[in-house]
């Protein structure tokens, strides 16, 4: 599949030191040899702990209003300061972690299930299914997620869980394209042909030969899509969609800070940094995994809708158009 | 197919540069037409998703419009008939789509203002931000990517790479807030919110849209810089670049005419792919800078469940994505043209 010869992906595979696609089975241990991956995992473990126990670990009640301590800077009593109602920002962020992370995982889960299954199946189910699945994917990719998500909350009711369903649906095309490309690459290998000639069923080929080769690609995509989903959650909560006001969320803390910039101009940097660090950790993990396995998120360098045949490789043996 | 083949034969016969121009433009037109044909099922699918989303909502528009007291079964039935909501979904969709093609997106349930009117009132805001953001992204991302590729391995390259990774973790609304704090609250250089149309004052218009556009462009700039760096490094290692250097062409000319032209494709693709992200970012910028744009309209109408407005907005936005995509693809096709005609 010459799509992997997109310049960016090629060089990533080269830098990773693994011949792309050859050494696809990379265990977590080899990824952890990279320092960036170790830092990323450490950050994510902390976030995971906050997701599970954030509300109980919080030093103060995130909802307690204290009129004597408005807009306090970070200090010994309030480690990250207080907001416009004197509520402890650290506690609000810790308590808000669970909703943000769980709904982000909800979206990624939906995207993963809806995207990878058809992505693998489309290679084996014939041209019509492939055509239909690709057109649906194209159509979904023309809908910017925030518009879709807000429209769904208008239709199905205002709630973060409802709002993240469309986000998950819009993540599915990315999973679909990446999985399809990776599956195509492996499904045309000679050993798959040999297995088919020996009478292996399609299901057997998928299970034994394709699935484990495609898994690293799916893992990379999952990590970067989790980052995207987390950004989506924080933006939705920033807009106040699906959250009742006193409940703490990452984006909610940010938006309440925005209203009082004159009093506390430093305040938005704290939730902003929290979001950026978490997203950065997920991206770093995806990069580390990609470097180790040579698996690429191929989707980035191909157009949303391929209107012209010259934009996609016509044949396996044909040279890529990109470096003409 | 055969025409294209004939032309290809003809053009390989007349060596290189002497390809007749009108034929080229005709092939280009045919290609554009082919591209449009591919888009038809996509437009139909995405508009159907859009329409059915609103239609399947569990809200009862007639009851909402009439209010609790006036919503007698007979009145609801009358209103549903007037709104065309008593037809099957597919029929409703077809009526909606055929009207939409002619520019009629229906009326708001509550204000009775035509949807197309409220959209076209607010569209200039988002178009201003988005266009300026594209310009900024190409300028910032392009120059950063080229600089990093030329000085690859150096401190400039490492710096650009580090800044790009940092920038890609920062969503537009966080960047926007940082910009407000820096340029509006601290330095008092630019206004923190509001919008002034370009017809009132070009200077004030720029003043009001520069910060939102900057917030919007940062992530796209980072993507462009990274992609341009990788593909430019790749291209600069090609034999024809070495050949051009050996022939003694000036470096700047090699860079611009030979290398950049071939490396620009993937970066342009990224720009096209990031366009939906930019539209989402525009909503963020509107929220941070309180601009009266499409995002505000969307949020307002979603809150009141003004379904025709929501549907119209989604249709307009997804059409924008499709059109931009078509433009990007056509440009890519032109970039990748080969000497024997257009494309392969």
Notable features of this structure?
heterodimer, A: 324 residues, mainly alpha, MetI-like fold, elongated, disordered N terminus, disordered C terminus, B: globular
Can you walk through the features of this model?
- The complex is a heterodimer of chains A (324) and B (344).
- Chain A has 324 residues and is mostly helical.
- Chain A has one domain: MetI-like (MetI-like fold), CATH 1.10.3720.
- Chain A is 64% helix and 0% strand.
- Chain A contains 11 helices and no strands.
- In chain A, helix 4 runs antiparallel to helix 9 and helix 5 (127-141) packs across helix 7 (160-187).
- Chain B has 344 residues and is mostly helical.
- Chain B has helices spanning 2-13, 21-55, 61-70, 73-83, 89-101, 115-150, 155-169, 172-186, 202-236, 239-246, 251-289, 294-304, 307-335.
- In chain B, helix 7 packs across helix 9.
- The longest helix of chain B is centred in the C-terminal third of the chain and has 39 residues, at 251-289.
- The radius of gyration of chain B is 25 Å and the shape is globular.
- The N and C termini of chain B lie close together (11 Å).
- Classes of the chains: A mainly alpha (324), B mainly alpha (344).
- At the A-B interface, helix 1, helix 5, helix 6, helix 9 and helix 10 of A face helix 2, helix 7, helix 8, helix 9 and helix 11 of B.
Indicate the topology:
The complex is a heterodimer of chains A (324) and B (344).
Chain A: H1 7-15, H2 28-32, H3 35-57, H4 89-124, H5 127-141, H6 145-156, H7 160-187, H8 190-197, H9 202-239, H10 250-258, H11 269-293
Helix pairs in contact in A: 1-11, 3-4, 3-11, 4-5, 4-7, 4-9, 5-7, 6-7, 7-9, 8-9, 9-10, 9-11, 10-11
Chain B: H1 2-13, H2 21-55, H3 61-70, H4 73-83, H5 89-101, H6 115-150, H7 155-169, H8 172-186, H9 202-236, H10 239-246, H11 251-289, H12 294-304, H13 307-335
Helix pairs in contact in B: 2-5, 2-13, 3-4, 6-7, 6-9, 6-11, 7-9, 8-9, 8-11, 9-11, 10-11, 11-13, 12-13
């Amino acid at each position: 599949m010459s799509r992997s010869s997109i310049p960016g992906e090629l060089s990533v595979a080269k830098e990773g030191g693994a011949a792309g696609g050859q050494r696809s089975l990379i265990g977590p241990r080899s990824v952890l040899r990279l320092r960036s991956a170790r830092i990323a995992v450490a950050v994510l473990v902390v976030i995971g702990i906050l997701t599970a126990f954030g509300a109980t670990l919080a030093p103060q009640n995130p909802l307690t209003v204290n009129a004597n301590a408005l807009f306090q800077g970070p200090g010994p009593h309030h480690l990250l300061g207080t907001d416009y109602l004197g509520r402890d920002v650290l506690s609000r962020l810790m308590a808000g972690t669970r909703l943000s992370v769980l709904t982000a995982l909800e979206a990624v889960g939906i995207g993963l299930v809806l995207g990878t299954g058809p992505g693998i199946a489309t290679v084996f189910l014939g041209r019509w299914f492939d055509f239909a699945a690709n057109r649906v994917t194209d159509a979904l990719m023309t809908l910017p997620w925030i518009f879709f998500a807000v429209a769904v909350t208008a239709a199905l009711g205002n709630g973060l869980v409802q709002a993240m369903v469309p986000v998950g649906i819009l993540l599915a095309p990315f999973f679909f394209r990446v999985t399809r490309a990776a599956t195509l690459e492996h499904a045309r290998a000679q050993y798959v042909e040999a297995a088919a000639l020996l009478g292996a069923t399609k299901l057997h080929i998928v299970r034994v030969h394709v699935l484990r080769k495609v898994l690293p690609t799916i893992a990379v995509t999952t990590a970067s899509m989790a980052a995207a989903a987390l950004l989506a959650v924080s933006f939705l909560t920033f807009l106040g969609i699906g959250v009742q006001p006193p409940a703490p969320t990452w984006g909610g803390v940010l938006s309440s800070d925005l209203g009082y910039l004159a009093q506390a101009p430093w305040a938005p940097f704290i939730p902003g940094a929290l979001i950026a660090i978490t997203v950065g950790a997920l991206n770093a993990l995806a990069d580390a995994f990609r470097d180790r396995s040579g698996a690429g998120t191929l989707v980035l360098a191909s157009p949303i809708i391929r209107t012209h045949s010259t934009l996609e490789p016509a044949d396996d043996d044909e040279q890529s158009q990109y470096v003409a | 197919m055969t025409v294209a083949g004939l032309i290809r034969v003809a053009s390989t016969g007349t060596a290189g540069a002497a390809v007749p121009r009108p034929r080229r433009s005709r092939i280009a037109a045919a290609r554009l037409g082919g591209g449009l044909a591919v888009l038809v099922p996509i437009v139909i699918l995405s508009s159907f998703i859009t329409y059915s989303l609103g239609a399947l909502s569990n809200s009862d528009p007639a009851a909402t419009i009439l209010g609790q007291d006036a919503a007698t079964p007979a009145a609801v039935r009358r209103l549903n008939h007037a709104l065309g909501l008593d037809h099957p979904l597919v029929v409703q969709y077809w009526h909606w789509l055929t009207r939409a093609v002619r520019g009629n997106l229906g009326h708001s349930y509550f204000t009775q203002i035509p949807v197309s009117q409220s959209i076209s009132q607010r569209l200039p805001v988002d178009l201003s931000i988005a266009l300026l953001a594209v310009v900024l992204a190409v300028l910032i991302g392009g120059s950063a990517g080229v600089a990093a590729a030329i000085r690859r391995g150096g401190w400039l390259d490492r710096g650009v790479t580090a800044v790009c990774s940092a920038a890609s973790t920062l969503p537009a609304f966080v960047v926007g807030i940082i910009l407000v704090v820096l340029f509006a609250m601290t330095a008092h250089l630019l206004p923190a919110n509001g919008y002034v149309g370009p017809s009132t004052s070009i200077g004030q218009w720029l003043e009001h849209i520069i910060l939102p556009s900057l917030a919007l462009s940062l992530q796209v700039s980072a993507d462009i810089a990274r992609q341009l760096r990788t593909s430019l490094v790749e291209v600069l290692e090609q034999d024809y670049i070495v050949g051009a250097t050996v022939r003694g062409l000036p470096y700047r000319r090699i860079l611009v005419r030979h290398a950049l032209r071939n490396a620009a494709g993937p970066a342009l693709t990224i720009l096209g792919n990031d366009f939906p992200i930019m539209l989402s970012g525009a909503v963020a910028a509107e929220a941070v800078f309180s601009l009266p744009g499409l995002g505000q309209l969307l949020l307002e109408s979603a809150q009141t469940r003004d379904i025709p407005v929501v549907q119209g907005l989604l249709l307009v936005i997804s059409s924008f994505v499709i059109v931009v995509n078509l433009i990007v693809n056509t440009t890519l096709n032109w970039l990748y043209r080969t000497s024997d005609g257009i494309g392969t």
